[in-house]
Specification:
Largest sheet: 2 strands, antiparallel
Strand content: under 5%
Helix content: 40-55%
Strand order of the largest sheet: 1-2
Radius of gyration: 21 Å
Distance between the termini: 48 Å
Length: 288
């Protein structure tokens, strides 16, 4: 293994920050970056060799290969993390604008909402994966959250609590239990998981992730992040009384002052329930 690859891997293992999925993605991205730097002619690098020219060459190459803006931003975040850990943060410009990287557009007029039907769930062989999918749909959970979910801890009668170690960014949050269907689902989850999580005791997270991906693929299910979109859109209609823009509802410009206030309040509630700290991100789910 090349020095840079090895040292970045060691850095990731020594500095474990964020949820498991965040750590895994960071290590994967830094491995890609190390390989790209080698392919671009920078040989014999170490973790402390990072210089402005390396970052600029990488960004130029990413643009040449037409990588998605979101992908480029994620890789830049990983590089900034690397630079901080070796006390060379000044090597990377603080703003992505310096490199000509535009802001990612969160708002879209196209709905990405998805649902899973009972017929589709029946095609999912693993009962723990089935339950995770149902929780994603009922509570707008991310995949990792729904897999690490411990019903005996999370179920607090009128709301669920998500541990920081389950969530993206390591932020604990609560989501209300509003319907009988949600209550019935949590009761079934308790019976299945007992005192544990929806990762069976004989598997670890990586193994369960492979099983999740294999089961959903064989059942013809894909892009299950769309279940969060569906939750956000349904929750918006429940809170305001009208459909959100991406589901055919009115845009913000056509709302009355009273409706705009209801719209703002609904977006703040949905943002908290889904684990986001910016209303702009919620617009990606429901439009504007």
């Amino acid at each position: 293994m090349r020095d840079l690859n090895y040292q970045l891997k060691q850095l990731c293992h020594q500095c474990r920050e964020g949820a498991f999925n965040t750590q895994s993605n960071r290590e994967h991205m830094l491995t890609l970056v190390a390989n790209e730097l080698h392919a671009l002619g920078y040989r014999g690098m170490t973790a402390r060799s990072l210089k402005p020219k390396h970052v600029e060459t990488l960004v130029k190459d990413w643009f040449a290969r037409e990588l998605a803006i979101g992908t480029i931003k994620n890789r830049m975040a990983a590089i900034r993390w690397w630079a901080r850990k070796v006390n060379k943060q000044n090597v990377v410009a603080r703003s992505n604008e310096h490199y000509g990287i535009p802001d990612r557009r969160f708002v879209t007029n196209e709905s990405k909402a998805k649902t899973v039907t009972l017929t589709q769930l029946e095609k999912v062989r693993d009962e723990h994966v089935r339950m995770s999918l149902e929780l994603q749909q009922a509570f707008g959970l991310r995949r990792e959250e729904a897999m690490k979910f411990q019903p005996s801890f999370a179920d607090q009668d009128d709301h669920i609590v998500l541990k920081a170690s389950w969530t993206k960014g390591g932020r604990e949050r609560t989501v209300p239990i509003r319907t009988e269907a949600q209550r019935e689902l949590l009761n079934r989850a308790r019976r299945l998981a007992g005192l544990g999580s929806l990762i069976p005791s004989n598997r670890n997270y990586r193994e369960q992730m492979r099983i999740y991906e294999g089961n959903t693929c064989r059942a013809g299910l894909s892009k299950m992040h769309g279940l969060r979109h569906s939750y956000a859109q349904n929750r918006y209609e429940e809170l305001t009384g009208w459909k959100c823009p991406v589901a055919g509802g009115p845009d913000k410009k056509s709302l009355t002052p009273e409706q705009r206030e209801a719209d703002r309040e609904a977006r703040l509630i949905i943002s908290r329930e889904m684990g986001h700290d910016r209303e702009a991100v919620v617009s990606a789910y429901i439009g504007r």
